[in-house]
Design a protein that fits this description.
The protein has helices at residues 6-20, 44-48, 60-72, 91-98, 101-104, 134-138, 151-163, 215-227, 246-256, 271-283, 307-310, 314-324, and strands at 2-5, 24-28, 53-55, 76-80, 114-119, 144-147, 168-173, 180-183, 199-202, 207-211, 233-237, 240-242, 259-266, 292-296. By secondary structure, the chain is α/β, with parallel strands linked by helices.
């Protein structure tokens, strides 16, 4: 086991993917000489050359469009979108081309493109730099959407995404880049949890708390705090947002009878609404209370002085948990 930050775990995972397959490329704004804004790709261009770790112009549509062309020629491009809010210029390429090509060709053509997107707030930035745009991509058929929450998951999930023949939107929680954890860098793919599987990170019996990306740590902290008051919370890291691991969610909620879904994105039209609907369909007769949601407010992301008020924290999560016991 090696202790790594989440950003270094991603770097190690990318390095291993580049070593294992000469068709793997990394491309994006400042990913080469600078090593990325968050230094996730630090040192990769030096070791693998400018032909495989490519500094691109500041043009997200061009980055993704070029990646689509490369994938059609047999490559496996990994695109970095510098900040979450910068992905929208590439939205047409992703939704109209990348997501549809495999079905359009009746399965004859695959586009194994990974689009890495640092997401969420908590770093003192502003709009376009602190957003959580998972819902539009989850709504788009033909894309796999995943979110890592810690170093170990980051290391394995980025490699699984690169080896996947479907296009993958890969969300990275930017305020967790410096969180440290144990990573088994000697492990092999056959021992890893499948990319589409959720995982239980804190066991409990009273209520199920579902989260992904940056909110997983917050929810675990809430579960620990609640445990001191005699309340048992089960925390599940969704990992895969599309497709959802409905089986794991269903099994937990049927045991606990209560569920809270937490994410940084605004509650209105967010992923939590889809999950709540699925749980209602699958677990109606087991529920002791409605599925409650915790998320950001329905406003553009605020100035950095207000982001602590905007982002769901331990208190807001625990308040939702308490409300589930009021029914």
């Amino acid at each position: 086991m090696t202790t790594l930050t989440l950003s270094r775990a991603l770097n190690s995972g990318l390095r291993r993917a580049l070593e294992d397959d000469p068709k793997v490329l990394v491309m994006g704004e400042d990913v080469g000489k600078l090593g990325g804004v968050f230094r996730v790709t630090d040192g990769l261009q030096k070791d693998f050359g400018e032909g495989r770790v490519i500094d691109t112009p500041l043009a997200e549509s061009g980055i993704v469009g070029t990646a689509i062309g490369l994938a059609l020629r047999g490559y496996r491009p990994i695109c970095e979108i510098q900040f979450d809010g910068f992905v929208y210029p590439a939205f047409d390429q992703i939704v109209s081309q990348l997501a549809k090509m495999r079905l359009r060709s009746l399965g004859h053509v695959s586009l194994p493109v990974v689009i890495r997107i640092p997401c969420g707030g908590g770093i003192g930035a502003v709009e376009h730099h602190s957003e959580s745009p998972e819902a539009p991509f989850v709504h788009t058929a033909g894309l796999r959407v995943v979110a890592c929450s810690g170093p170990s998951e980051a290391y394995t999930m980025i490699q699984q995404s690169v080896s996947c023949d479907d296009p993958v939107i890969f969300f990275e929680p930017k305020r967790r880049y410096w969180d440290k954890g144990e990573v088994d860098t000697a492990s092999t793919a056959d021992s890893w949890l499948p990319l589409t599987s959720a995982r239980t990170v804190h066991e409990g019996t009273d209520v199920t708390l579902l989260a992904h990306g940056p909110m997983v740590r917050t929810c675990v902290e809430a579960a620990v705090a609640a445990g001191k008051e005699g309340r048992s919370i089960e925390v599940i890291d969704l990992r895969s947002l599309s497709p959802l691991d409905v089986g794991s969610i269903r099994d937990s909620v049927r045991r606990t009878g209560r569920c809270v879904v937490a994410h940084e994105a605004p509650v209105t039209g967010g992923l939590g609404a889809e999950i709540a609907a699925r749980i209602t369909e699958e677990c109606f007769y087991h529920l002791e209370a409605p599925v409650l949601r915790v998320g950001g407010f329905s406003t553009p992301y605020p100035p950095s002085k207000l982001e602590e008020h905007y982002l769901p924290d331990l208190d807001r999560v625990l308040d939702a948990v308490d409300r589930t016991f009021g029914y």
